[in-house]
Amino acid sequence: QVQLVESGGGLVQAGGSLRLSCAASGSIFRPNVMGWYRQVPGKQRELVATITTGGSTNYADSVKGRFTISTDNAKNTVFPQMNSLKPEDTGVFYCNLRPTLRSGNYWGQGTQVTVSS
Question: Which residues on adjacent β-strands are paired with residue 39?
């Protein structure tokens, strides 16, 4: 089993920055993809950014140039640095881990990010 614990959410003004953190523990299989997804009420969870064990990244168009995802593979931790935040970035951010060579799709409990205008 895999456990994901998120931290770093909160309230920030538009234009500000936040750095989220997600620590994974348990039976972590490699290679894998770790990432962050955002959900707002009434809508499906959507991709924010992902990073593979090998360091390849993928970003939603809406966050390109503003968000940077990085990982500490030794500590199984993933960090999205979110800059130039906009009110439309508001939502619950969920950490995700998915092994690429075996089944499994794991989610954290979510952390609220609110960007005020």
Answer: 92
CA distance 37 to 39: 7
Tokens 């979110």 locate to 82
Tokens of 85: 């935040």
Q: What's the mean pLDDT in 60-67?
A: 97
Residue pLDDT, tens place only, 75-95: 788 899 999 999 999 999 999
State the amino acid at position 2 in one-letter form: V
Q: Where are the beta strands (DSSP E) in 73-110?
A: 77-82, 91-99, 106-107
Rg, Å, the chain Cα set: 14
Give the C-alpha separation, 9 to 63, whole Å.
Answer: 17
Q: Decide: 89 and 16 in contact? Cβ < 8 Å.
A: no
